[in-house]
Structures are given as C-alpha cells and as structure tokens.
Amino acid sequence: MRVLITGAAGFAGSHLIEFLLRKSSERYAWGGDAIEIFGADRWRVKRENIAHLESAFHYREFDMTDRGSVLGLIREARPDRIFHLAAQSFVPTSWQAPQDTITTNIIGELNLLEAVRECAIEPAIQIACSSEEYGFVAPEETPITEENPLRPLSPYAVSKVAQDLLGYQYHRSYGMKIIRTRAFNHSGPRRGEQFATSAFAKQIAEIEAGRRDPVIRHGNLAARRDISDVRDVVRAYWLATEKGEPGEAYNVCSEIHWSMAEVLDFLLSISKARALSVEEDPALMRPSDVPLLFGSAAKFRTRTGWAPEIDLKRTLTDLLDYWRGVVS
Fold first, then answer.
1. CB-based burial, 14-53: b 16+ in 10 Å, e otherwise
2. What ranges do the domains of the chain cover?
3. Rounded Cα distance, 97 and 99, in Å
4. How far is Cα 11 from Cα 161, in angstroms, rounded to an integer?
5. 149: how many CB neighbours lie within 10 A of its CB?
6. DSSP label at 303?
C-alpha cells in the first residue's frame, strides 16, 4: 500500500507518520502488505518534527500552490491513500495574511484533486477540515453535529469551509473517494508554540529552567474548546480512509470541553515552578473569537468504532514534558 501525506513535517503529519510506521509493522507481521509512506511539505520548511523518522519514509519537497509541483508528486507516489494535511493552519495568521491563507488552503487542495484526476488514479482521500468551520455556535446548538450551520469567523475558517465543500463537490462530480474530517482542537507533543496549549506549556518549561520571568502571558481564557490528543486524531484519520463513507463529513472530537483557563490551571498545577502569575496580552486577543466549540463524534463513532483513548490531562502532561526536553 502506498500512502501520501501532505504537510508531513507538521504537527499532525509527524504523528501520522509514526502511526503508519507502527501500522505497517503490524500488517507485515500478520502477513499483510507493508505501507510505503511518501511525506511531502513545503520547500525549506523546518523538519525537526520528523528528523527521527526521515530514514523510514520518502520525503519530498513541493509547493501546494504550484500545479506542476503537485502533479509531479502524485505521478511519483501514485498513492492508494492520501492524507491531505497541508495548510496554513494558524487562525491569527489568517487575519494578518488572508490572501496567503486562502491561496494555500483552497488552491492547494484544488491542485491536489486535479492532479489525482489527471493521473487517473482512485485513492481514498482524507481532507483535514476543521471545527472552526462551525464558527459562531449558540449554546443551545451544542454539542455540535455535522448538521450544524457553518458560520465561519476567520479567514482561516472560510478557507476550511471552501476545502470541505470542494471535497464534497469533487466526490459528487467525479466520484472521487473523498472523506472530510472536521477535527476539533487537538494537542500533544510537538504542537506549535503559537497555539495556546503549547504556548502555556513552553512558557512554564522556560520558567522552570530559569529562562524567563515567572509570568505566563495569555489570550482569551474564557473560550471553551473540545480538545483531543493528536495521537487519537491521526488514528481517526486512518479509520476515515478505512471505514468512512466517501462524500461524508465527520466530526473528530473528545466530546468534552475545557476553558482555556482550566487548561492553564492544570498545567500550572503540574509545574515544578512556584509563585507563577498570569497576565493577559492584548496581542494574543483575536478580532473575533469562537466562544464555544464542543462537538459530537457520534456519527464517526457509529461508522468506524473510533473513540478517544487519551484524556486531556495526559495530553497536557506529555506536552509539558516535551517542552521541558526542548528548553533544557
């Protein structure tokens, strides 16, 4: 089996590679086909997330916004499954660079789907969509199901709505085996430091190491998020291509929500440092924020049998230990 991961050097991409390597070993041990992995990411992107893995898979540099680059990648890999994770994925950046966000996320996916058509292959394609598509959600509309209206509140969210619907359109128009996963927030080791859970953990690790003053800077702590472990999420991505119904969209979420204040409080409770204070940073506040993202994974669970296995306290503990290792 040949598998292609776009965005392979990223947070979820690196964990997906690790998952697939374990899955490949299991399949081979039971007499099945091993999994040959092609991982692709932007030219000159930082690759520290996959430095320990690069000898175990084929790494390729490409440009999602360049049709010829994407076509060349698909012609070489000719994958049986594609996990499309490549995107500009940081919400605040989408306000600073909305055009780049729209181009990367929408044109990039369009180039991928057209390349698959041109190569006349029929892979299962998982498109990593986002709970940010739901945007403004009234409390009485929770838990969020796949039937909730899409009310995006950022350029990033608009781009993910477009990716989502583009996948649906290509399935309906061309019969392509596209499954859309709407993952809610996820975290864990190697999460980018610009994301709230990781920003908190990195600051605590730096304070413990004596590298910064004992003050944690934060944005909106009132926002409530449904946060899964990335290792559960990439397992869901695999199951989406194994058992998901092409053309369908599925929420991937823990079905439990924490406020950012509760997340920070837990990280502080397991810190080795004492007498820490917290301070709101206006630069970390968004022009508009989603107050509550709390989902139902019932549709995906019924279809695939997936359920989260790692609770958030372990996720946050592992995340803090990761940053302790980085800053030490």
1. bbbbbbbbebbeeeeeeeeeebbbbbbbbeeeebebbeeb
2. 2-187+228-255+294-309
3. 6
4. 21
5. 11
6. H
CA–CA distance, 270 with 231 (Å, rounded to integer):
22
- What number does CATH give the domain 2-187+228-255+294-309? 3.40.50.720
What integer pLDDT is reported at residue 90 of this predicted model? 84
> What per-residue confidence (pLDDT) applies to 80?
98
**Distance (Å, rounded) from C-alpha 56 to C-alpha 52?**
9
Distances (CA, A) of 7 to 97, 119, 218, 279: 19, 21, 28, 34
Structure tokens at 59: 């790494």
Site of tokens 């990335």 = 230
DSSP track, 263-301 = HHHHHHHT-S--S-EEEE-GGG--SS--SEE-B--HHHH
Map residue 257 onto helix, strand or coil: strand
Instruction: Read off the pTM.
Output: 0.95
In whole numbers, what is the pLDDT of the chain averaged over residues? Answer: 95
d(CA 59, CA 54): 7
d(CA 59, CA 77): 11
List beta partners, residue 182: 129, 251
Residue 289 above 80 pLDDT? no
Of 138 and 176, more confident: 176
Q: Give dist(CA 228, CA 209) in Å, integer.
A: 28
| pLDDT tens digits, 63-114 | 999 999 999 999 999 999 999 999 998 888 999 999 999 999 999 999 999 9
Sign of the torsion angle spanned by Cα atoms 239, 244, 248, 253? negative
What distance, in Å, lies between the first and last C-alpha atoms of the chain? 40
Q: From CA 4, how far away is CA 77, in angstroms rounded?
A: 7
CA 16, 167, 36, 90 torsion-angle sign? negative
Identify whether the C-beta of residue 298 lies closer than 8 Å to the C-beta of residue 250. Answer: no
Report whether 255 contacts 143 (CB < 8 A): yes
**Phi, psi dihedral angles at 103 (to 5 degrees):** -65, -50
Extract the runs of DSSP E, i.e. beta strands, from 163-304: 177-183, 186-187, 215-218, 224-226, 228-229, 249-252, 257-259, 277-280, 292-293
